[in-house]
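Hi there, hope your week has been kind to you so far. Do you reckon you could talk me through the fold, stretch by stretch? I've dropped the whole record in just underneath, so have a look:
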Amino acid sequence: MEMTMGTLVTIVLLTMALILGGYFVRQIFSGATTSIEGIDQAVKNEINKLFSDDDTRKIVVYPPTRQIIIKKGTDNLGFGFSIRNIQEVNDKFSYEISAVELSCSDNFRLAKADDLIVLGKSRSNIELPPGTVMDQPMFVRFDVPETTPPCNIRYQIQLYHEGKTPYSPPVDVDVEIKSD
């Protein structure tokens, strides 16, 4: 079989494009089930899309699977969420995030799981006009030391308005701690 140089170059380029395309598709879809590093415009757009899908939602978590995978020894990874005021008046909101369940060894307690959250554990006085969504979603960051055992931890986001009046049912987010 004889092939021209142009045919060989075309085959090589198409193979490279196929490999790169597969890599980028994998990266895009794995981002929905793993931790996010920060709130960028794409995450904000996805949060707004999730709100637009259901106009009764009071809170949206990204990634929408509410399942986060973090490797031991990693920090500054986590999840984002946003609040919507569905009321007809201005309101001030607050939230608290705490560990409620875990599958770790006996010496790792809920208090230690709470300590893995380094930023975004709670906030108060988030003022929202009626019918609006937060301009900047909240980002909850974790710092998972190498000494943390591999396990699953369920965190609960509790929203309040007007002080300590519950605004919505608690929302769960599952964090899976993996070793290398």
Residues 94 and 123 are 5 Å apart (CA to CA). DSSP finds three helices and ten strands in the chain. Helices lie at 5-30, 41-53, 110-115. Residues 31-178 form a domain with the Immunoglobulin-like fold (CATH 2.60.40.10).
